[in-house]
């Protein structure tokens, strides 16, 4: 069996507060009420274009975990948000993000969805060479470019931050990274994310509006129903608490066994009974199971088509066959079944059902009001 997971950190005050609230969720939750949402928000191509421009175009976008490019002297590409990005991890371990386009005649420089060791980036066309800090280092037959200054032709940088074990970029427009680098990073560092190992990653093509996928991670009402034969047995029914960090959501869901007798000063013990989840705008979900973390980066393609990249992070690389088998089982359960089949399947079935026009509105109960909050935040941002 693998070594027990011992998070090296302490919970943040907010993580502790949510766990405390789960002791008596009735006390902090408003009385039961319902909400309704117009289905047009999932069906309209015009609305989708506004979301792309005003939400994805203006907010920091989580590209993935730092662990997806951990090794100094490596490079990878990222195309999920429609802008060709080149991520370069320098020999000193520092990260840079650039447009994946040569400054000579614009050629795409690299194709590497998985990181590759790369001491220098050489354009395949005429072999202009760039260092890992983006600087243009060499122009073959340089005498044929009189007056051209190499210093001015480095790769075009993209604003980004790497904090708390996540990489965030703003490829479209300068933006505010203060939440990503501040309170969110504090929570993720408390979960140990900045030192975790990437066990597996997989991109799913989901025939559904991106918000239907977010919705599946904004309520625990479905856990005992949709996931009846997979993970329902691990959770209490709807014992949960939540709050917000700016427009982002944070929730705690109590696992079977409950909080009775749990020492809240023991972070590992607390994490065994509380699953923390983060719903980050515009479209990233992080779920912290007791000993591993799933990160889902949701990348919309059209109003009814979305890519979801699922990353599974574990404390350290598997050291034995037994450990490998343990993590493989968790990956198959979560990525293969719970997310890949059940949650994403429900999103696709939702899209098909809504497209029939049967109901102009959907109905949300008390356990689903996180969905109403998320959509209100989206509406506010795209109307700004
Ligand atoms: S286009 Fe890159 S070297 Fe010419
Ligand atoms: Fe689910």
**Beta-strand share of residues:** 25-35%
Level-1 CATH class name of the largest domain: Alpha Beta
Rough shape?
Answer: globular
Strands of the widest sheet, in order across it, are 12-18-17-16-15-14-13
Q: Indicate how many domains the architecture comprises.
A: 2
Number of helices: 10
Q: Largest sheet at a glance? A: 7 strands, antiparallel
Number of strands: 19
Q: What is the N-to-C order of secondary-structure elements (H for helix, E for strand)?
A: HHEHHEEEEEEEEEEHHEHEEHEEEEHEH
Q: Using the coordinates shown, work out and report the CATH topology of the largest domain.
A: Naphthalene 1,2-dioxygenase Alpha Subunit, Chain A, domain 1
Portion of residues in helices? 25-40%
- Could you tell me the mean pLDDT? 94
Calculate the terminal CA-CA distance, rounded to whole Å: 52 Å
- The CATH architecture of the largest domain would be Alpha-Beta Complex
Structural class: alpha+beta
Rg value: 22 Å
Bound molecules: FE2/S2 (inorganic) cluster, fe (ii) ion
Q: Give the CATH H-level superfamily of the largest domain.
A: Naphthalene 1,2-dioxygenase Alpha Subunit, Chain A, domain 1
Describe this structure in words.
With 384 residues, this protein is of the alpha+beta class. The protein has 2 domains: 13-60 and 194-383, Naphthalene 1,2-dioxygenase Alpha Subunit, Chain A, domain 1; 62-162, Rieske Iron-sulfur Protein. It is 27% helix and 28% strand. It has helices at residues 13-22, 25-28, 40-43, 45-56, 178-181, 183-190, 210-215, 267-273, 321-355, 369-383, and strands at residues 35-38, 61-65, 74-78, 85-89, 95-99, 116-117, 121-122, 129-130, 136-138, 160-163, 166-169, 197-206, 235-245, 248-255, 274-280, 284-288, 293-302, 305-314, 361-364. The protein has a 7-stranded antiparallel β-sheet with strand order 12-18-17-16-15-14-13, sandwiched between helices. The protein has a 4-stranded antiparallel β-sheet with strand order 5-4-3-6, with no helix packed on it. It has a 3-stranded antiparallel β-sheet with strand order 2-11-10. α4 (45-56) packs across α10. The termini are far apart.
